[in-house]
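User: structure tokens for this one?
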Amino acid sequence: MPHTHTLSLPDQIKLAELLEQEGVGIAQILRNRVFLGLIEKAMPSLEAAYPISRVVKIPVMCSSGLGVVTAPMAITAGASGVGVGSAINKLNDVVAMIAQVRSTAASLGISADKSSLADEKIVSVT
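Assistant:
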């Protein structure tokens, strides 16, 4: 099992501030997923998005447990974009993967068919 470092929420906020001072262009929030439900799985990331997005001026990207249902919650909590890699990577069919990205984009009010997403919320799949 890989070694994991866990910071308290106040330490994460301080780290985001320090990274911004050092010139980092975006802060990504990844938090432990210990619950099984859709909302519970995303709750640690959602919980961190609000205070971190309030103390830094750089974009905050929320990931960990996000998908069609919870991605809009991340934006509401202050995230500039969302990462939905786990929602995509668990699928075995490319068509299902595309459908998941399109559904998540639609839940954010973004057309997945746009050639340019400038000034739109970011959907990241890694």
